[in-house]
From TrEMBL:
<protein>
    <recommendedName>
        <fullName>LysR substrate-binding domain-containing protein</fullName>
    </recommendedName>
</protein>
<keyword id="KW-0238">DNA-binding</keyword>
<comment type="similarity">
    <text>Belongs to the LysR transcriptional regulatory family.</text>
</comment>
<dbReference type="InterPro" id="IPR005119">
    <property type="entry name" value="LysR_subst-bd"/>
</dbReference>
<keyword id="KW-0805">Transcription regulation</keyword>
<keyword id="KW-0804">Transcription</keyword>
<dbReference type="Pfam" id="PF03466">
    <property type="entry name" value="LysR_substrate"/>
</dbReference>
<feature type="domain" description="LysR substrate-binding">
    <location>
        <begin position="25"/>
        <end position="216"/>
    </location>
</feature>
Amino acid sequence: MRVLARARRLLAEADDLVAEATSGHARLRIGYAWSAMGQHTVPFQRLWPRRWPHVELRLVRTNTATGGLAEGACDIAVVRVAPDPRRFDSVVVGLERRYCAMAADDPWARRRSVRLADVAGRTLLVDRRTGTTTVDLWPPETRPATRHTADIDDWLAAVAAGGCVGVTARGTVDQYRRPGVVYRPLRDAAPIAVRLAWWHDDPHPAARHAVELLTELYGGG
């Protein structure tokens, strides 16, 4: 798998070189598995060409743990789980509150917030491929039962169907407003760190600009 990932990465880099040589413009591909930059996605996209018009920005969704970084689908990636430090560098650019997702007709939908201890008594829907939540969020003796998915759309569909709840980052609330699904804050859960990550040996020249802008946006609320 590592050889295949390396081959894809080299092919993507070759495509970038051809594009830059023919257009005279650099290109930055930012990958993500879901939620992108949450509420800051559109402001990021609009501010980028004003500040760095010579660098074309592309957002690329790839349903993998590294948001396409390991597969060569992007130059840097937005991740909400720390990547392997042996392969990647990363910088925390902001924090997002955790939310509980539930069906719109769930009794909890009438609440203003939810506690972790409440969730321990429910069935928790876990995205094993790219999700940020595992049962490790709870003490061993009070962990919830689990069901599993491997994609954000499947996760949302299962939540909307009822019978289980999910725990996710604020970015999901902002990017996936779905009929049949409501979100309530988890008032006693630690926030999720949002990171930008890139390969140790291949930092994109514009990565520092992305870190600068996204840190600014998350810092502004």
